[in-house]
Design a protein that fits this description.
There is one protein chain. The protein is about 45% helix and about 20% strand. The longest helix is centred in the N-terminal third of the chain and has 42 residues. The chain is of the alpha/beta class. It folds into three domains: about 100 residues, Beta-Lactamase, CATH 3.30.450; about 160 residues, 2-Layer Sandwich (Alpha-Beta Plaits); about 200 residues, TIM Barrel (Alpha-Beta Barrel), CATH 3.20.20. The chain contains 22 helices and 22 strands. Helix 3 crosses helix 4. The structure holds ligand C2E and calcium ion (CA) (2 copies). The site of ligand C2E has 24 residues, from strand 14, helix 12, helix 13 and strand 18.
């Protein structure tokens, strides 16, 4: 057995205590080191935060202030430091200009925000920056205040918001922006009178289809810029609703003449030629006007009514402006119903059994009174409303493109009728510009000729100058194709519309049909005889014949013979007649000719 002396046992105990003591010191040093490290990391993390941070104790004194806070407000770290009170921080900032307003009010705002659970507060600084501040209470009784510079974020948000409210093509406010603005216009406390103008470019679709979308875009940008010039008052508002639709809001005192003046300025400026992809294009617009509150005491009613007035302006022949009237709503509804009925009638299998028929009106040679051809004129007998004038339903058929099917039917029917007439009698068919936009028109016409057995030389297509606006390549190619096949081409309604003599250079027409408005006034003292003479002279020089439309009196007939016009057409000789009656008339042509000559 081993025995341990007593002194040895005491020494071991001493050594053990010393060892534990050293170990504990090491551990303590390690712990302090760790704490210090953590504190320094924490301090560095706090200083490198993207937000400014202030930590306050329950006595409203600063415990921590990070570097970012110092940087945001440019304050001195000698003043804003632990122990400094909230008031002192604020007074220092007020001195430096990063706090505008009352220090007490600011303290009150902090107290309120803390009691409401730390709702964000945006502070705008004199230098244009925006700082978002959130004050949040801590369990210990103090609070944390974070300060974030959100200037850039707000700028981006604003740019995105602006983009969402602007039309990217023209830079004008878009529909959404317009609706907001119209709403605020109605909420305006002094309730100023204002006019809402709905502006729609006439025949924009055909310009776009003809010249291409780039030119269409150029045109819309030019229209936007010009409207902006017209509506230049601070309180004016111009927007693009989409497509070719624009709006203007104009406040005015009480005199509606102010609006008439604005409209006159718009028409004057928009009538100036527009350069589109190298082409000079002439445009027109239709304008519908609603006045608040007479024509609508809320945004949607006023918008609907101004829009209705614009549609009425279109239906009234375009290139005009109309103020809203309650009767227009009924008329627009009637037009919509008519369009639905027309669609039903045209798209059903057998167009002929749906109230459509062709009448024919003879064209007579002025030299010998001989009928040269007959113009096919479409008639529509509505099942409930009875006969509807083509002047009413043709524009609806054109706007809805139903004219394409309807026009094909007219062509086939007219050729079928002509196939039973004497072979020296031609047949004239009206072709709408809408039909000319289709590249297959020439093929359809030639096909219909083959089926009917009518010689191409007997067919005359009547077109209006609208199809030549903007040098439509498809339309011109179609015209040349048909002309080369022997089909005759007549320029209808000459003297109305744009009436540019330059259109006569664009295609070698066989005939000019002089519009009835000139024939009406041909025998007045201040009449249009000299215009008719000029047209006849130009036509003769270019190898074209002339037909006077709407001849109703013997005096007109005598004047036309005197002026050297080739043909006449009008009630004086015959009204348009159904196919059976025209056949009858053609068989008696010889006797009529005798009457005419004497
Ligand atoms: P438009 O091509 O100028 O046709 C001549 C119009 O003048 C016809 O009117 C005819 O009835 C009318 N008229 C003829 N002689 C006289 C007269 O002595 N005095 C007066 N005041 N009027 C006369 P309607 O049949 O009402 O046709 C109107 C318009 O509708 C036509 O004008 C034409 O633009 C269009 N239209 C008619 N049928 C068709 C068609 O099949 N296709 C297309 N695209 N348009 C058509
Ligand atoms: Ca015609
Ligand atoms: Ca005509």
């Amino acid at each position: 057995m081993i025995t341990v002396p007593a002194f040895a046992t005491g020494q071991v105990a001493l050594w053990t205590v010393a060892l534990y003591g050293a170990l504990a010191t090491c551990l303590l040093i390690a712990l302090i080191y760790r704490i210090l490290m953590q504190k320094s990391r924490l301090a560095s993390a706090i200083d490198n935060m993207t937000q400014g941070l202030l930590l306050f104790d329950a006595n409203k004194r600063v415990v921590i202030c990070n570097q970012r806070y110092i940087d945001i407000y440019g304050v001195s770290s000698d003043i804003v430091k632990p122990g400094c009170s909230l008031r002192d921080v604020l007074l220092h900032r007020k001195e430096l200009g990063s706090l505008i307003g009352d220090v007490d009010a600011y303290c009150e705002r902090v107290a309120n925000d803390l009691s409401e659970g730390g709702r964000p507060f945006i502070l705008s600084l004199a230098d244009g920056r925006f700082i978002q501040i959130i004050d949040r209470s801590m369990a210990s009784g103090g609070w944390v205040s974070t300060h974030e510079d959100i200037t850039e974020r707000r700028r981006i948000d604003k740019a995105i918001e602006d983009m969402a409210l602007r039309d990217s093509l023209t830079g004008l406010p878009n529909r959404g922006f317009f609706q907001k603005r119209l709403g605020t216009e109605f909420e305006s406390p002094n309730n100023p009178k204002f006019a809402l103008l709905f502006i729609d470019v006439d025949d924009f679709k055909s310009i776009n289809d003809t010249l291409g979308h780039e030119a269409g875009d150029d045109l819309l940008r030019a229209v936007a810029a010009r409207l902006h010039i017209c509506a230049a008052r601070d309180s004016d508002f111009v927007a693009r609703l989409g497509g070719d639709e624009f709006v203007i809001i104009r406040r005015f005192s009480s005199d509606p003449d102010e609006i008439e003046k604005l409209v006159a300025e718009i028409f004057a400026l928009l009538h100036e030629p527009i350069e589109c992809s190298g082409e000079r294009v002439l445009i027109d617009v239709s304008i519908g006007i609603g006045i608040s509150p007479n024509h609508g005491s809320d945004p949607s009613t006023l918008m609907r009514n101004a829009d209705t007035a614009m549609y009425q302006a279109k239906a009234a022949g375009k290139r005009t402006h109309l103020f809203y009237e309650p009767a227009m709503t009924a008329s627009l509804n009637a037009r919509r119903r008519l369009e639905a009925d027309l669609r039903h009638a045209v798209l059903s299998k057998d167009i002929g059994s749906n109230g459509f028929s062709l009448y024919f009106q003879p064209l007579v040679a002025l030299a010998d009174g001989r009928i040269t051809s007959c113009e096919a004129l479409l008639r529509w007998h509505h099942p409930l409303l009875g006969p509807i004038s083509p002047e009413q339903f043709i524009p609806i058929a054109e706007d809805s493109r139903l004219i394409i099917e309807l026009g094909e039917w007219v062509l086939k029917e007219a050729l079928a009728a002509a196939s039973s007439w004497p072979i020296n009698i031609g047949v004239a068919v009206n072709v709408s510009p809408v039909q000319f936009r289709s590249p297959s028109l020439a093929l359809k016409v030639l096909n219909a000729l083959v089926i009917s057995g009518v010689a191409p030389q007997r067919l005359e297509l009547e077109i209006t100058e609208t199809i030549l606006i903007g040098d439509d390549k498809t339309a011109l190619a179609t015209l040349h194709q048909l002309h080369a096949a022997g089909v005759r081409i007549a320029l209808d309604d000459f003297g109305t519309g744009y009436s540019s003599l330059s259109y006569l250079q664009r295609f070698p027409f066989d005939k000019i049909k002089i519009d009835k408005t000139f024939i009406n006034r041909i025998d007045d003292s201040v009449g249009s005889a000299h215009i008719v003479r000029a047209i006849v002279d130009i036509a003769t020089a270019q190898g074209m014949t002339t037909t006077a439309e709407g001849v109703e009196t013997e005096n007109q007939l005598a004047a036309l013979k005197h002026l050297g016009c080739t043909e006449m057409q009008g009630f004086l000789f015959s009204r348009p007649l159904p196919a059976t009656e025209i056949s009858e008339l053609l068989s008696h042509d010889v006797e009529i000719r005798k009457l005419m000559v004497c």
